[in-house]
Design brief:
This protein is mostly helical. The protein has 2 domains: about 210 residues, Citrate Synthase, domain 1 (Orthogonal Bundle), CATH 1.10.580; about 100 residues, Cytochrome p450-Terp, domain 2 (Orthogonal Bundle). A 3-stranded antiparallel sheet has the order 1-2-3. The radius of gyration is 22 Å and the shape is globular. About 45% of the residues are buried. Bound molecules: carboxymethyl coenzyme *A (CMC). Carboxymethyl coenzyme *A binds next to helix 15. Pathway: Carbohydrate metabolism; tricarboxylic acid cycle.
Amino acid sequence: MADELKRGLEGVLVAESDLSYVDGEVGKLVYRGYDIEDLARGASYEEVLYLLWHGSLPTAAELDAFAADLAAEREVDDDVIETVRALAGAGERPMAALRTATSMLSAYDPDDEADAGEATLRQGRRITAKIPTVLAAFERVRQGEEPVAPDPDLSHAGNFLYMLTGTEPDDVSEETFDMALTLHADHGLNASTFTAMVIGSTMADVYSGVTGGIGALSGPLHGGANQDVMEVLHEVDASSKDPVQWVKDARDDGRRVPGFGHRVYKVKDPRANILEEKLRDLAESSGDTKWLDYTTAIEEYLTEQGLVEEGIAPNVDFYSGSVYDSLGIPVDMYTPIFAMSRVGGWIAHVAEYQEDNRLIRPRARYTGPEDSEFVPLDER
Ligand code: CMC
């Protein structure tokens, strides 16, 4: 048993956690016991952060103080903005720019010398507050616009949309984006959270953990899938192809359909249900049903083909991109937005794990040669 090999750590329990639970058989997600539906519809992202970091939902007074503390940390040093400009000028990809800028933020953290563990939540709050500022600045500069300074009077979601566009968002946009942030905030030991935990388990600082988490999230098997889904929808649209034909061609070529399948969910991801409903509302009020029509057609086709029954069902990324598109957010910012939300979960897991820390250090089964005879360089 001790030597049983679990590829991809599938099904392996490595920690106890009070933070979130994913029931992949019935399609249920809870944060500290609260159903994701209730949180997505009833709680702000700030409330969810408080819940994850401090263990319970805040009272109104606790929320006011928490939100004000978070908002007070939004500004980033000019040097970071200059680096963001340089990265945008060099054509850097948004996730890579976010990774570099997040790492740089530690240079301006007043707790830079503090002990990891003790400082995790304090520094985590600063990182969470500053990531939207970095991302919005990157996008503005890329568009040839000047960054917009954060507004401490706006919510986390509202302020990001404001910094991105220079205009205060309407209520529907702010609520929609806030819901998306809540839906992505935590999800058990997914690859990026585990990455952050592995780094945190060495008692490295939380900037290192978050920077590693961003790297892990950027891959197409994880957070990068939301961008891939939207690229498919755009490709379908540009070629006037039937979306179902795109899926047939992809499957004939042995390609995976982005936004489908999950390591834990064997049924449709509950977050996909919530986002689909949101997309339906947005499409009905705008009259633009194009993305809804395409995604529905793809889901119906794959359901008919028996894929969904086999457990390869829509995941959160299948509908999130269409919702972001309705907010005017560029496609390659979708994964960074995922990071902007998931940073809350990364920090919560690192802080929780460090309370009873044990270095994470698995083993590999050695399959290399034995007794290799060393030959000096000049004799090889
Ligand atoms: N389209 C077609 N077939 C699929 C898909 C898909 N999207 N996903 C899995 N399969 C098939 C796969 O080919 C394999 O079939 P077979 O056993 O015949 O070779 C079987 O399902 C099992 O796949 P797996 O790769 O062993 O399963 P996994 O648990 O390692 O993969 C996954 C999970 C998310 C990497 C995979 O489903 C996938 O690549 N999906 C597409 C990318 C995607 O949407 N990622 C977002 C995940 S959810 C958000 C997040 O975590 O960031």
